[in-house]
Specification:
- Two copies of one chain form a homodimer.
- By secondary structure, chain A is an all-alpha fold.
- Chain A has a single domain (2-304), classed as ABC transporter type 1, transmembrane domain (ABC transporter transmembrane region fold), CATH 1.20.1560.
- Chain A is built from nine helices and no strands.
- Chain A has helices at 2-10, 12-40, 48-89, 93-99, 101-142, 144-191, 193-198, 200-254, 259-304.
- In chain A, helix 3 packs antiparallel against helix 5 (101-142).
- The longest helix of chain A has 55 residues, at 200-254.
């Protein structure tokens, strides 16, 4: 994904530290779930210090990982905005007029904002991926047979949810395009107000035939996207209950599984639900962000192609 | 919260249907968790049809609830944008100049966008609250003693996390104010480009003394907010493990609790973690949205106070 590349380019060292501490945090979470499972089945004693130790490690590694990513992401947005501003200021006037003030403004504000919203959630996504990986390792250690069933099921789940998300993404792209048009109309209001004030008929026409049409179309595309998305959300909940149902009722008829393993499995999968759902719920924001990033890149290329003068200005 | 009021005003019936179906979905989720617990302890047989039935009810009520809220929220944004546009068009020119084109533009685009992002997540939050309520009822039924411990713990958890979130909210407000200023600078670029082009010194000064300063300040406030927020996230993870640790290791020394009740409790709390964390993670977006909504309201009041002419235009 482009967003990851943006951060890697800013500082691969910070990304590496964040990923490493994130992985430690996720691994310890899985370890703690394993500990809870063995405490539930009453197999071990004197677990208090294990609990405290793992809890503290999770707390600090989570924070460290997020701090690094937060700093990095905010820096990336900051220098992106400055570089774009500088590129606009050093482009020929004629070229800027061709690009249009509304497109420039939309890129500087809305696209940068969308991007900033996505980098906001990136840190938690990384921790979530780490937790999922850690728990999967633990599940494979618990029982190979159940692990294979879970993995096959997970692959089917991801494929079907991905299909829904792709459809949602298409609608979101359409909504975004329509919002560009809406943005242009808003600009007509704030800039062309004098002209609109003079002509009452033109004003009515503008409201009902241009602005309202764009606003309605953008609403419709957003509704379609969010609906597809809601179906995906309900579907993923269903899938969780289906796999638990299969493990509890179906599997014991096929192979013999110890009841303690089964309950450990179900607790782990229930715990996995949090990061799994979190990632699925937040993916649309990434899609929006990658659309925005593409728009920003396109704008920068368009500006660079007509670079007029180079100035000594470094955003740092 | 203002956002809820915005939706209630749009259609209390739709909100009522969404809340009702959401509650059914949440209640069934709790029921299904209870079913899983009794299946794990092997107390009941022939559960397949219960599983299938509850799963289907959850799937459809989740979707219905979200569909209603999605439609409502998108309609609210749509008519908000149209009403604002119309209010601007029917305000006296002199008054609009006092308000400033950049503030008008920021309200029409960025604030409306932030609001739209928040209503995007509102449906899932409602389902999450319903799941939490349902699970709490189930927990109280399982064991009154453990329930009281959980509730006291939950209250402490919410209070401490709320404290962190309030601090994060303050920083986010500062960041938002700074971004208004940044917006103004972007507008200077797109609109005042001709003047900036003519004066190389003025251009350098603008970049390094105005735009860069605002961008840096907004980055700093965002970093502070997100860091506080990451601490809250790590803290809430710690709290989950603390309560599980207490239930497993501490409680059995104080009162006698059946091991099957304890494992049912832990599975339920692990399942609760998903909606609980989801709500906590998404609260900042609501804070942003309520700031934006206040700005929009202020703008609308400012426009209404100087209403010049009333036009026959109804956004529907």
């Amino acid at each position: 994904m482009n967003l990851i590349w943006l951060l890697l380019r800013a500082s691969w060292l910070n990304v590496a530290i964040a990923v490493l501490t994130g992985l430690i945090s996720g691994g310890c979470s899985a370890q703690l779930i394993a500990l809870i499972n063995s405490a539930v089945s009453g197999t071990t004693n004197n677990l208090l210090w294990y609990f405290v130790g793992l809890g503290l490690i999770i707390f600090f590694t989570t924070i460290i990982s997020q701090f690094f990513l937060i700093e990095l992401a905010q820096d990336a947005i900051y220098s992106l905005r400055l570089r774009l501003s500088q590129a606009i200021l050093s482009s020929p006037l004629r070229h800027l007029e061709e690009l249009g003030a509304n497109r420039l403004m939309a890129t500087l504000t809305e696209d940068a904002q969308t991007l900033s919203g996505a980098v906001f959630i990136l840190p938690t996504i990384c921790i979530d991926i780490a937790i999922i990986l850690g728990c999967l390792v633990y599940l494979s250690w618990l029982s190979a047979a159940v692990f294979i069933v879970t993995i096959v099921f997970l692959a089917l789940a991801i494929a079907s949810i991905q299909f829904l998300l792709n459809k949602a993404r298409d609608s979101l792209s359409l909504a975004r395009e329509e919002e560009d048009r809406l943005f242009k109309h808003f600009r007509t209001i704030t800039d062309g107000i004098k002209e609109l004030k003079l002509h009452s008929q033109r004003r009515q026409q503008f409201l009902s035939e241009e602005l309202q049409v764009s606003a309605a179309a953008s609403r419709q595309h957003n509704i379609t996207a969010l609906r597809t998305y809601a179906i995906g959300d309900g579907w993923s909940q269903m899938l969780f209950f289906t796999i638990v149902c299969f493990l509890l009722l179906g599997l014991p008829r096929l192979v013999s599984v110890a009841s303690s393993v089964l309950s450990a499995y179900i607790l782990t999968i229930a715990y996995l639900l949090t990061p799994f759902r979190n990632i699925i719920l937040r993916l649309p924001q990434f899609f929006r962000a990658s659309v925005s990033l593409q728009k920003i890149e396109k704008m920068r290329l368009a500006l660079a192609s007509q670079h007029e003068e180079t100035e000594t200005f470094s955003p740092s």
